[in-house]
Design a protein that fits this description.
heterodimer, A: Rossmann fold, Rossmann fold, 2 domains, 9-stranded mixed β-sheet, elongated, B: 15 strands, 30% strand
Chain lengths: 340, 266
Amino acid sequence: MVSSLYGVDQEQKEIWVFLEQEKGNLESVSLELLTKGREMADQIGWGLSGFILGEDLESLAHQAFNYGADQIYLASHPLLNTFTIETYSHVVFEAVMEARPSVFLYGATPNGRDLAARLAVRFRTGLNADCTDLRLDTQGDLLVSEVSGFGGGVLALIEMRHHRPQMATVRPGVFSSSPTTPRKKTEIITIPVSLTEDMIQTRILERVVGEVVDLSSAPVLIAGGRGSDNAFQMLQELADLMEGEVGGTRPLVDEGYIPRERQIGQTGVVCSPKLSLCCGISGAFHFIVGIDKANTVISINSDPDAPIFEFSDYCVVADVHQVLPALIKVLRSMQEVSNA
Amino acid sequence: MPELHIVVCVKVVPKPEEIRVDPRTRQLDRLNVRHEINPPDMNALEVALGLKDRFGGSVSILSMGPPFFEPYLRACLAMGADHIYLLSDPAFGGADTLATTYTLAQGVRKIGRVDVVFCGEESSDGATGQVPPGLAEWLDFAQLTLISKIDLDLPGRLARGRRLIIGGYEYLETPLPCVVSIKSGCNEPRFMDYRIKLWAFSDGRITIWDASALDADPDAIGLPGSPTIVTELAAAPSKERKRILLEGSPQEIAQQLTGLFKEILR
């Protein structure tokens, strides 16, 4: 066995969360991890710390205190303003080697995944990716991660007995976030950052961030699949009428009908809406993972044998192109009545 | 200027819809399951072959797994790859990502001079997406992940790619050599070329390396090299749904649905 750079006997009984920010706001998944981290920390009497990198971050620290953090580590430097793997991994690595936390959690975002995967090798430790649940085993101070494989068909529990930190990534929407009263004692720790341009191999030539859609917390999801490929306008109209968001299956995204950030399922977003309306979706494993947390699933598909009906509360065997116009008509007339 | 040399990491995976957990042994039932090349790896291979079409040079396939992977990998030769390296040794079995990335990195080192290592975004069985950055770390290479478009500047020794980020994208530039993970579904992988298929499945070159050929640290490979342990394995319980059938004309169904919406969203 190859040892990690620090072991169980050198760890601090603490949970760390990598807090990701864009334009002065913490990402939703970071808040979700703080809420989950607080819950686990309370069960076992540990501290919860957040780690923020960027520039001018005080206000973010206070956001994090509202989600239960005891301590916030701030790494402030102009070269940390946007993520590059070299700068972020360098700064986080140094801080972790100094504080030696037992547990370190990351959002399974493009940057969170890259950072966690690279650091795991640097620490010579394990990393449980895309966890569907986490708990702390109070007996052995072990992080127990639940992960799903094979498109969601198989669940595994994974733990790591000798290597530290115990790292995991969690996708947006898997946990829910809830603001809480800040702890009686909170602390901001500013960590020294020594970075120079020549440490950076990655040059950012252009960076475009549009409106960030947050499908994971939308109360209503209107999801489209192959059977609704020409009906995107109708899906959007339905979403507007019901104050929901439009999402789609991977083939629809691959073929360009729906933007990538609206992909539902294993390689997309996991949603937990009150209602998911699935239009013309056959129901592949990969997709089902994304709506499994919906309170109610209603599906419309012209194929009575479509697997999606196995995972639906209400099943409509009909052509999407016939049902949706009728549905939009009824909803519109109801809206006119309530407006009058 | 030396010829462009690309390595593509390829995994052979069970078809996800056919995988079952044996409720008694709690092991994955890998018998009677059909396999395929991990679909995202096909997108990576297509990108690599496209670059070879443009710049010349060669494409090597690197895979870690049991000998039965061989015929699947030969399909990559029939698509236009030049050489297959299969890392195969019972001692590699049971590897988690740390041990897997270490072993693949040893493979890349042994292959020798390489400009770009391509990987699929993630595997359809494990779906962790950790391998590309982990591999880059072992090799001390730069990385470009979640890339949907890529261009190489060979005289300048640079790679430029379009990377997916939350709510948008960025164009990044890194020096060669680098590890690049390709966004799945970003292209249409080519078919096998029937003019070379016969060669691919008979005389096509395949090199098999075991742990000693790789000069691998026995403590860093397979089960011993894997910090994480799976303590439980089970079929995922899916939420019991009501499965109530709604019937009628589109208008009647629309009425029923709006009634349900009110109830659900109350």
